[in-house]
Amino acid sequence: MSLVLFYILAGAILVAALMVVMLRNVFHSALFLVLTFFLVAGIYLMLGAEFLAAVQVLIYVGAITILILFALMLTHKIYSAAIRQVNEQVVPAAIIAVLFLVLAIFTVVKTFNGSDAKIAAHAGAWTASLDLSIIPAQQSRLNWTVDIEDNSGQSYVAGGFFSLIDQPSATRVLPMKPDPNTSGYILSASPDYSTIDRIFSRGQSAYIKVWSDKVDYGSVSNAVWTIFSDDGKKIAIKLSNSNTETIGRLLMSRFALPFEVVSVLLLASLIGAIVIARKDS
Q1: CB 9 within 8 A of CB 46
Q2: CATH 1.20.120.1200: which residues of the chain?
Q3: Closest by CA position to 162, among listed 184, 139, 179, 183
């Protein structure tokens, strides 16, 4: 059923996108652009990316296209017969379109070629973070375990240790990427998990990511990251595999500045709409 729904959405997206570039009325093209964005949000929902689907609707449908329609409706003589609403750069546009098509096909083949549906159904990663400033000052070495268990009784347990120092940590191990077909973990000082760390400073945050092909991620009943101190105390933190939570954490940390810079696009669109809407004196 999901495959049928995907083909329906994909076909509708292609038709709506063709209408955007083929219609001679630019206002109608903009309306089909709104429809295209809505349908793409449906694809995101099928992929389990609810946050991206919401952003697609709020930003592109609720902001970008509204500004485009605002500019079109206020532009002087936009429907004038003297204005040619066709693309005069057919050859460059065709070359760019073919290049994007080749790049998209290459990306899809590279990503999904040889993938095992059974493994993909169980693949996933659970994450958590901890502000190390809450650790007592006298603690310098802490042990930790991660316990993940699903409703069928299958479980995955990982364990290790990390050290706290008073000075900022400069120790780094070679970057590591998780392989969804195996089991493992990453303990990192970076929210994008680009490094593996065992030495942290007290002002940092520690980020943990665990994954295993042995755990049924569709029915996890318990997922906890437990940190043990020398005096017997422990800190238990629930792990999550929520895309929304992960993206939100990255947007408010590593990608905070780029996220704000993108907002300049909306300002530029608004200024452009005002400039275009001004009538010639």
Answers
A1: yes
A2: 2-113+263-277
A3: 139
Q: How far apart are CA 225 and CA 208, in angstroms?
A: 8
Could you tell me if 80 and 24 are in contact, meaning their C-beta atoms sit under 8 angstroms apart?
Answer: no
Helices 65-74 and 256-277, packing angle to 10 deg: 10
Residue 276: its pLDDT value, please? 66
Q: Which CATH architecture has domain 2-113+263-277?
A: Up-down Bundle (1.20)
Does the pLDDT value for residue 181 go beyond 70? no
Location of structure tokens 């200024």: 271
**209 in helix, strand or coil?**
strand
What is the biggest distance separating any 2 CA atoms in the chain, rounded to whole angstroms?
82
pLDDT digit string (tens) for 16-49? 999 988 887 778 888 899 999 999 999 988 887 7
- The 10s digit of each residue's pLDDT in 119-168 is 444 456 788 888 888 887 777 788 999 888 877 777 778 888 888 887 65
Length of the chain: 281
Report, in angstroms and rounded to the nearest whole number, the Rg of the chain calculated over CA atoms: 25
- Please give the single-letter amino acid code of residue 9: L
Q: What is the DSSP letter of 224?
A: E
d(CA 75, CA 79) in angstroms, rounded, equals 9
State pTM to two decimals.
0.56
Parallel/antiparallel/unpaired status of strands 199-201 and 155-165: parallel
